[in-house]
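Case study 2.
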Amino acid sequence: MNSAVGLIAFLIAAVGAVVFQLLGLQVAGLAIILAGVLFGLTFRIAAEWERAVVLRFGRFAGVRGPGLYFLIPAIETVYATVDTRRQSTRISAEDTLTSDAVSVTMDSIMFWRVQDVKRAATELTDYRGMIAQVAQTSLREVISATTLGNILSEREAMDAKLREYITKKSDGWGIGEIAVEIRDVKIPPELNDAMSRNAQAEKEKQARVTLASAEVAIAEQIASAAQIYAQNPVALQIRQMGLIYDMNKDRGVTILVPTDMANALGASIALNVAPPNQATPAPTTPFGSVPRA
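Prediction:
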């Protein structure tokens, strides 16, 4: 008897007792008391997510609920109340060998829902325990048929494969909407260290390849520039002077250009580089100072 139904039945019986004792209406009082007792024996309440499996003389009579439902006293009984909400079950497999002989421990979680209340309650002794056992054995089978690399890199495929195994084995049980998610995969510590070193070596390899590619590109650009300077010596000399200027512009020094370079440019040239707070001296040549304009 539900608590709400029992309370209502008690109130009805109390009203009957008051009528019987205080008002002296014995027949009416007894009738009200009997109605309260029958109400408590015949009515039940099921929550929105609950379904009651009713047996009549031991045979399946139907699924009742949600809300208020009726039972025939002494003839019908509630065999089980099934929760139809989506439920979760944690499943794990410890020290299971993969297809490439690596011992792993995997922790997963399975979501499921009872879709056929009659089958789940009348054809299975413990549908919660049975679906958990099927999920655990399926998890071990999937691990044994998969390599460690695929387990670590293809979790979505593992989830789909495990769901397929569980759905196939639990077909006809009245359980559906099965979904599985892998939470954690543990491997031996020494193998974990080896994989970390391998990943680090792979990253270093990629960095070296990238650096070598950059060096090749730079060398190609330098070779192209050398060809241009070989065809135009004046451009090379101007470039040399630009480099000399860039290297010494912040040092406050005077740069003398060799006579042959100056002749090649068509004049005797000297660059005088001085700090901004000092006066710039007059340019000089091998033959003396050149007057300022």
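The longest strand covers residues 103-114.
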